[in-house]
Amino acid sequence: DRSCPNTHRLPRRSTCHQMNLCLRLLVPYIAVIIFWFGLENAWLTIAAYHLLILFYARGNLSLPKRPPNPSHLLWALPAIGAGPLLYVLLPHLAGDNLTGWLAARQMSPASIMILLPYFAIVHPWIEQTHWHPLRQQTGFAHPVFAGYHILVLTSLTSWPWMAFVFFILMLVSWLWGLLCRHTKSLTPAYVSHALADLGIVIAAFMRT
Q1: What is the pLDDT of residues 157-200, one digit of tens each?
Q2: DSSP state of 32
Q3: Distance between CA atoms of 43 and 31, rounded to whole angstroms?
Q4: Can you give the C-alpha Rg of the chain in angstroms?
Q5: What is the pLDDT of residue 11?
Q6: Residue 24 — φ and ψ, nearest 5°?
């Protein structure tokens, strides 16, 4: 019908948008299933995850910018507690299995520390850039974000601890979304993520 040229295009666009959203949500699961479980290689898992994010971003990545109100960066400071908290909880979460668990995926304490700047600077930036628009589009992004971490932990800890971690990560994802809306900037969430990852990597290193 020429009088309504877009009538048939709208459902198709909607379907494509939904498919694109689903694929972007599934990015970490694809990387984890193929490279963490299939090839048992943590480095390939991280590389595949980040490369898939870059593929879907297609040049839309931007460096963190100064927030409109720099004092909003103070909201990131509570994330400093992530490292000490994990250090206390790791013996209960992993027992004596942490070093062997890492080694089974081609990771050593030394290699983790060598790549600490990448884990603490680049990884949070890539993840926040990927998950921020997903959080804006669907609340389902919060459990999906938490869920891929749980897949990684299935061979390390027990189900009660996985449920606890799932809840914490889902809450953190929601708080990052709230922080972005409140500050009108992605940077405080990025700084929060960077501080958390920095402490987590150091805590894991100290427990190996």
Answers
A1: 899 999 999 999 999 999 999 999 989 899 999 999 999 999 99
A2: I
A3: 11
A4: 19
A5: 57
A6: -65, -35
pLDDT tens track for 42-72: 999 999 999 999 988 876 777 777 888 888 8
Identify the pLDDT of residue 50.
95
Compute the distance between CA of residue 112 and CA of residue 25 in angstroms, rounded to an integer: 26
What is the average pLDDT score of the chain? 88
State the Cα–Cα distance between residues 124 and 108, nearest whole angstrom. Answer: 21
Structure tokens given for 82: 């992530």
Q: pTM (2 decimals)?
A: 0.86
Instruction: Name the one residue in this structure whose structure tokens are 């990387």.
Output: 31
Contact indicator for 143, 28 with CB cutoff of 8 Å: no
Is residue 31 packed enough to be buried (19+ CB in 10 Å), middle (13-18) or exposed (0-12)? buried
33 Cβ partners below 8 Å, 6+ apart? Answer: 151
- Helix or strand holding residue 153 (H, E): helix 141-153
Contact by Cβ (8 Å): 156, 165: no
Do the Cβ atoms of 107 and 199 come closer than 8 Å? no
Q: What is the mean pLDDT of residues 23-52?
A: 94
CB-CB neighbours of 30 under 10 Å: 14
Neighbours of 44 (CB within 10 A): 17
